[in-house]
Design a protein that fits this description.
Number of helices: 6
Distance between the termini: 28 Å
Shape: elongated
Number of domains: 2
Strand order of the largest sheet: 1-3-2
CATH topology of the largest domain: Arc Repressor Mutant, subunit A
CATH architecture of the largest domain: Orthogonal Bundle
Oligomer: single chain
Helix content: 40-55%
Structural class: alpha+beta
CATH class of the largest domain: Mainly Alpha
Number of strands: 3
Strand content: 15-25%
Radius of gyration: 18 Å
CATH superfamily of the largest domain: Winged helix-like DNA-binding domain superfamily/Winged helix DNA-binding domain
């Protein structure tokens, strides 16, 4: 599943929120959006069809009820899935080697990765 730039902007808000959000909540918290407010319904339906979000209940707004939405996966799971859904999949060892060379990787990150490897009995 690949998401458009506008869909990613909505997903970023949902991932940061940690709680399900209504359409109105999304509009209120989407500060750097490239889409129009009137497009949010179309974007949410697209994300539902792609399986990126799910309905997580209803909330009462004044006199009516509205749906709330939650992501079906974490940001990290999305990017991991994206890497392997391409036709030209990377070699796993080469991918990890490239990631570990990034200057953003800290000693604490390396320690956590090592612990994760030991926990998975790899």
């Amino acid at each position: 599943m690949e998401l458009t730039k506008s869909e990613m902007e909505i997903m970023d808000v949902l991932w940061e929120s940690k709680v399900p959000m209504s359409r109105a909540d999304l509009l209120a918290r989407s500060e750097e959006k490239t889409w129009k407010d009137s497009s949010v319904h179309i974007l949410l339906n697209g994300l539902l069809q792609k399986g990126a979000i799910q309905e997580a209940g209803l909330v009462k707004r004044i006199k009516t009820y509205g749906r709330v939405f939650a992501p079906t996966m974490t940001r990290e799971e999305y990017f991991a899935n994206t890497i392997f859904c391409h036709r030209h999949k990377p070699e796993i060892i080469g991918l990890f080697a490239a990631l570990l060379k990034r200057e953003e990787i800290t000693a604490a990150d390396l320690q956590a990765i090592e612990e994760l490897l030991h926990q998975t009995n790899v």
